[in-house]
Every structure is written in C-alpha cells, then in structure tokens.
Known about the structure:
- By secondary structure, the chain is of the alpha/beta class.
- Helix content is 45%, strand content 14%.
- The protein has 27 helices and 18 strands.
- Helix 24 (589-607) packs antiparallel against helix 25 (616-646).
- The longest helix has 31 residues, at 616-646.
- The chain is globular and about 85 Å long.
Amino acid sequence: MFVLLLTSPVAGDVVGIFFDSEVPQSEFAASEIQTALQGKGHTAELNPLSELSVDYAEKKIVLCLASDGIACEVLSLQGSSTISGLGEQAYALRTATKGPKSYWVLGGDADGLMYGGLQLAENIRFHDMSKTYNSQEAPYIKNRGVKYNLPLDARVPTYVGYGEKSLSQAFGGDAAKEAIPAVWDMAYWEEWFDEMARARFNVLSIWNSHPFPALLDMEEAVEDVQGFDGYAKKMSPTEKVAFWKKVMAYGKSRGFKIYFITWNIYTYGAEGKNGINNDPKNQATKEYFRKAVRMMLETYPDLDGVGVTAGENMNRLSAEAEGKWMWDTYGQGIMDYAKDHPDRDITFIHRWHYAEISQIMSHFEPMLALPNVRLDMSYKYSAAHMYSAPAPRLIYTKDGDVPADLARTQKKTWLEVRQDDFYYLHWGDPQFARDYINAFPDKDKYIQGFFYGSDGWTATRDFYSKADVHKNILDIKRLWYTQMLWGRLSYNPETSDQVFLNELAYRYPDVSAATLFDAWSDASRGLPLAAEVIQGTLCFDFNWWPELCQSNKGFLKIEDFIKAKPSIGSELCSIEESAAGDCPDGLSSDDVADKVQLAAESAIKKLATISSAGNPDLEVNIKSIHAQAYLSLYYAEKIRAATAKAADRNEDARTALGKAEGHWKNYTRIMDGMFIGADMLRTRNFEDWHVHDAAVSREYSVLAGDEG
C-alpha cells in the first residue's frame, strides 16, 4: 500500500487535454502529451475542443489553431495574449495563470499545432508542469526530407549503379535485402512516421529504379512480394495499392509530403512484358512509362509528386535526346493527369544530374504552363559525404553556378544531402549540424528543401547489432540522437544545446548529461574535419567508406590520401600542399590532424568519468563514442603519416603509422564487439571488423622496412 501511494497520482491531480480528434495531427500531439503527463504521475482527461470553457475546474492543456476565435477568446479570458500571423508549420505556446494553470498550443496550421504539441509534451517530460512557456517557433527549412533508397521487391530494386545490371547484382547489399519485410509492414511505417515527426522531419522521398510494378494494379504488375532468405508475402496488386494508400495516408497524418524518385531507364519487374525493355527508342517502353506515371497520380491521392534522374541507363544518348525521352514519358504522363485534375497540385522534381536546367525548361514547357504543376530541381549538395566540409561549394562549381541558374529561371532546388559516411556509428555534434544547415545557399531564394540519407545503405530494421537491446529495432531509433539533431536543427538552427542536454538527462538519468553531451560532440567533431582533407577526390560512396577506410577496390592506403584533394571550396590545404610547405593561408593537414586528435582525446578523457550504470542502450552508445574517438585518432595519424611521407620524412611517417595501428586495433575491437559484418552495396563486403587489421599492420611494417 505504501508503494502504491508513492507511485500513484495525487488524488484530484487531473489535467484536461482539449483537442480536435478529427484532426490527426492534433490527436497525435494530444496522445504524446497524455503519455508525458502520465509519466509524471498525472491523470490525463481527454476532452473535445468544442467543450472548452473558462469554467473547467482542473488544470488544462488546449490544442487549437491560432485562427480558432472561440478558443482564443477563452485564452484571453484566462489572462493570456493570443497571437496572429502564424504561418505554415509554425506554433506558439502560451501559459495562462488566471484560474487553474493552463498550457495552450496555438498552431498556424495542423502541422504547426502538432509540432507545438510535441514541444509541450517534451517540456512536460523534462519539467512536469512547473514552468511557464510563452514562445513561438516557425520552420527555418520548410521541407525537411529523408532520402530513402528503398527496394520494393526482389524484382524491384533500388539503385545499384550505372547501366543495366542483373537482379542478383541489384541486390548486392545485405541492408537492401533485409529491407523488404519492413517495406510491407504497416507497423513499421507507423512507428517510422511517428519517430520522424517527433524529430520534425516532414518529407519522405522514396528512391527506386522502377517502382511501378510493385505499386500499381496494372498489366505489368508483379504478383505477391518476393524477398530473400525465405521471406515472401501473398499480396495481389489490388492489396498492394491498398497498403500503400494506407502508408501515404498515415504519413499525411504526421505532416509528411511524399515523393517517389526514379533513375532511368530501368524496367525491372516489367521487362519483357508487352515488348517493354530498356531501349530508349522503344515506343512500347515510352507508352508504358507515360501510362505508369499517370496511374501513380490517379492511384495515390496523397502522393505529392514524382522525381526523375536522366541518363543513368540511356545508352549514352545526347542530352537533347535524353530530355526528349523524359518529356515523352514522365512529362506527358504528368500532363495527362494534371489537365484533368486542375484542383490537385503536383510537384515534378528533375535532378540536375545529367541535365541542364534551360534544356529541361524547354522540353517541359507545355507541362509548366499548367497552373497546378511545379517544377523543382534537385542537386547532390555534398557529393556522397555530408560529414566533411560544413559549407560545400560544389553547387557553385561542379555544374556551373547553380544558384545563378536558379535565379535566372526563377526555380528552386532540393539539396540531396548524401550520408554515406556512418551506417553503424552513432554520430552527434550539434554545432556541425548548425553550421551545415546555416551554410545552405539563400534558402528563401534558391532552396525548396533537402533530402537527407544514404545511397549505398537502406536503413530499416537493425539486423547487424550484437547487443540484444538493438536487435530488430528501427535504425532511426537506434540512431535517435543523429535523427534528433538533424531534424530539430533544420526546423530551427537556433535550438539550444539545452534541449539535447535535457533529452540525454531524461534517457540516461544516472550519468552526467553535460559530460556525455560534450564527449559525444568531441568524438563526432573530428571525423568530418579529417574527411574534409580528402573528400574532394574521394567524394563518392564507392571511393571511400570512412567507417572501414575502404573503397570498392579495398583498403585505402596513405598513398591514396596523398593523392587526394580537399573538398571544393575548402579552406584546408591538401596533404601534398602541406608537405611542400605551400600552405600560406589555409589550415595544413598537420594542423587538421592536431585538431582531430585534440577532440578525440578530449572525448576519451570525458568518457573515463562515466559508465553505463546497467543501461544497455547507454552502454552501446558509450562504446560508439569511444569507437568514433579511436577512428578519429587513426585518421589523425594517417593524415600525419601521409603528409610526412609526401615530404620525404619517412621516420615521422613510420612513427605516425605505428600509432595509427594501435588506434585502429582499439577501434575494430570495439566495433567487432558491437556489430557483425555485412555484404555492402558500394564497397567491399566484410565478414567482420578485423578484415583490414592485417593491411593496417602491413602498411606500417612495409614503411618500416620490416615486411616480415
């Protein structure tokens, strides 16, 4: 009885939540607030917003639109100010103290109401109902997206590389094979959308070579679902359509816009049917694509648009011929639908890859004349490695001055923020994220939004962790801190570090949140800086995977580092320039190594003062932070060794490589204790994390003249 009294809510400690259950965003926010209140020992009473009154006798929380005159009148009567002019996705929090204390969430729209409710739920988790909140927020980046390379079936793969490849090659990675069961699991999608909405993401872009046979009830559809390792699911094309309608509707209920983006020309799943193949001159193929694009819009009312990549598999057609093919298929398909449905807004996304904006505007002129169709571009902003230069300059140089072209044509672009750096390590440095987001070119003038994610790894459920606490959970839940940083800071880069400290304190109450935060930031700071030195040359996912220091050809040696240049526009000097003493203004590679080492050693020192205290999730994250620190130290010494060797200082190079070997062994020991090996899509497969230990040792011993 004594224990029950201690753990039960105080008698009469009721908090009423008033919300509109007909608005799914409001219902979700109310549910989150209810959970937070119950976690603090309160009894939450759910009430219709229509029953809101001044006379309610208990404390209350109100979720309403800022345009709701009746609710705002009650707020005024309770002694608090209302607000006007809240825009899309914006919200305001108000605290009224006249009568029983009440918290108010005012949304500029349903999505803003949801974000405000999620913020209030977080406040209650951290502080109960002890504080006063009178604040407002609006999105810095309105479209905060996820780039999700997603296979839909063993016969319907995501992208694997240039040119036509067999299906066995198309599924060259374990992550892609393991993804298919999640794709057709509604529970997976519900959890995914909930988690990503909490992190303030609001766009899902699904990238697939040729998704139509798995998504449409058409003659060319594939029957059932085929996966790998015995996975299969009986589903007719009609049932698949119903499933994806449900997925998209759920995404809408969490504020998401949804796009499907393809590469061309690939006809996996449909090839050989009705004369369809990958020949760009084949009229049957053109007619099929036009029909499929129209059917996508007809079938899925919650689909916001489609996107394309030209030239990946078009047999080296001229740019003019590629553009004409895209118009004959995607352009005509969109126009067929849009003309008959003038009340539906449609977005067409055309990647800059293998394209030129003036040519696109010329080919798609009839479609663009329609008032309900918008053309956006999409640009690969950091090549494949976002964790390198925080202000990449490719957008001004690689394909000409992209912002200038956008200004000239009065169009905007999405930024493809490719993350092919860390599939396993749990990265977390909020300042780097802020710097990266704030460096976007004039966002209001040029940027429609961004897509953040991997091309060579499909993150669905964890199949690779050895720790029981993470087996089979969503990857985004294992890597929750990374998702939180990028989502929350892209919504508002001025979000205080205190928010992240509070979250760490809530999740891990038995350790110092400040120490953990600092150690995590330090360990995550070094790797992007080290990457910046070489990312200009080793810029694609097949050139370099940092977590295992390998490419598609194998282990990367110091000779590869010596040849590599920094990111375009970087203020860092190359290894060769540094070795030659030709670095009068920038930061030399040795200076970079010093900074990386300092951050890593600081992280290790801080970690020595905390322990997991029996929390298995914290234990894995502490190990991950240690691993990042040792990997940083490895790259610091490798950069030193490369610089010394390029300067003919072989003794210094040998010393650095000897230290690098020790750091590498510490790193791989930790990683092998946490994760199994995997078949990779873009770089070499690995059975375990010790696969390059011998190569690291040999690199030192060869330079030391002791190959034996």
